[in-house]
Each structure stands twice: as C-alpha cells, then as structure tokens.
Amino acid sequence: MNQVPTIKLNNGTLMPQLGFGVWQVPDSEAERAVGTALEAGYRSVDTAAVYGNERGTGLALAASGVPREELFVTTKLWNGPDRRWGRDEVLRAFDDSLGKLGLDHLDLYLIHWPRPMRDDFLAIWKAFEEIAASGRAKAVGVSNFRPADLERLAGESALVPAVNQIELHPLFPQEELRALHAARGIVTEAWSPLGQGKELLTLPAVEAIAAQHGRSAAQVVLRWHLQLGNVVIPKSVTPARIRENLDVFGFELDAADLAALDALGASAAGRRIGPNPAVFDV
Fold this sequence. Notes:
Elements: E1 6-8, E2 14-16, E3 20-21, H1 27-40, E4 44-46, H2 54-64, E5 72-77, H3 87-101, E6 106-111, H4 121-134, E7 137-143, H5 147-156, E8 163-167, H6 175-184, E9 187-191, H7 204-213, H8 217-228, E10 231-232, H9 239-246, H10 255-268
Helix pairs in contact: 1-2, 1-9, 2-3, 3-4, 7-8
C-alpha cells in the first residue's frame, strides 16, 4: 500500500511528499531504477531535460502497469545559455520532454535555473502560463529561484509558482526561502535532501538520533524534511536503498531530535554544495 502523504499545491493539485529523483542516473539505467522505485511504492518521479534520462524514465513508467492517474511526473526546462529562450523555444522543449517521457501531460513542469544575468525567466514564465492554461501540465513552478527572483516574478505575473525546488538539507536549511514560500503558498521541494556523499550522514548528531530510533541516518534526515513540510526526492540506484528511503513513515522525530538537526545548519554556516543560482549560467 502506498503510504506516502500528499501535499496540496496552490492550484489544488495533490503532490506526493516523497518521490524518486533520477539526477545523475544514466538513461541506460533509468528504466531499471525507476521501475524498482515504482515496484517499491513510489508514485512521484522527478527528472529533467538536462539529465538525459527522460526516455528511460518514460519506458519505466509505461512498463510499470501503474495507472497514469496514480503517477506524479515532474521534469524541468533546461533553459541553458546555448539559445535565446522565447515562447516557441519553451513550447518546443516542453513537447520534446513529453515525447521522450511518452506522456500526453505532466504533473509538474519547472524552470530549472533562474539565470538572472540572462534576464529571460520572465519571458519563459509567460510560456509556462500558457502551458498551465492548456492543461498539459497540471502545475508549473521553478527550481533554484532566490527570494529576489520570486519577488520579481510576483511583480510581473499573477500565476504563483506551485513549487520551488531548491538545494536543502540540514547543513543548508534555507530558512529565508522556506519562510517566503510559506507566505506565498509555494511548496518547498528539496534536491540533494541527504547532502553530498557521507558527510551529513556520518555526523555524530545524526548517527545518535538514528541509533535511538533504530533507523538509518538517511531515514532520519528524510524524516526531518517531512516533518518540516518539505517535499523530498532522494536518489539511489541501489534497490535496498530505494526501498529504505521510502520506509520513513513508521516513526517520528521528537522536538529534541529536530532541534539537534536544526542546529547543524547554524554550525555549518549555511554551506551550499551545489551551484549558486546568483551566478550559475552553464
């Protein structure tokens, strides 16, 4: 039985709070990894055009036998610096992603990066408004947008992003952005929810909480996200870990646990592991 709770987006669409991410999963492995996740009970899958694995992801969705209405599929526009992104370019990219995924609609479509130095995300968002109005994406949103980017979007469009997918983990908790999201009705979705490598998962505070609950360090960190209200998309290609990351609904962290994990962000001084959206333009 799929026990993953859902979060209601600002347009009424329901999104599973825990999904399966496929960043850095080669297309040749995506079908197997996504298939394993769907068999385990995941129903939300997060990919992106730049990941190069939409086709493999789509093959897994088609082969799974899971009814389309039970799936929540997210992909992202790669608004890279190789071209000027106007309405036609965005719509072509959207159609290309749908074709590779083998779908007639998406549940969520995101602008992958703000690239503020290019000054074109407002034009891209206009095309996203059109996609949303057409019903070919149930919801649209953004990824890696800073408070300044969200404020600028709000000044130009009545359509509020349903989601902002950002780097977020106990070592980089993004309090300012989460507060802004809550005020604007934007759901916070965490990429790299477990940090990078084993650093976060081997911290004494995390290991102590894991031992107390008889859980893995990864399960404790995912539980922290869920109790904060974040959507999370952990990634793995290992079947046992794929299943373990889903098994996070049979325990709860108490106030002391949450406080200990919250304190990690202060001690790390908000250390980012991914690119800085203010300057990223690769």
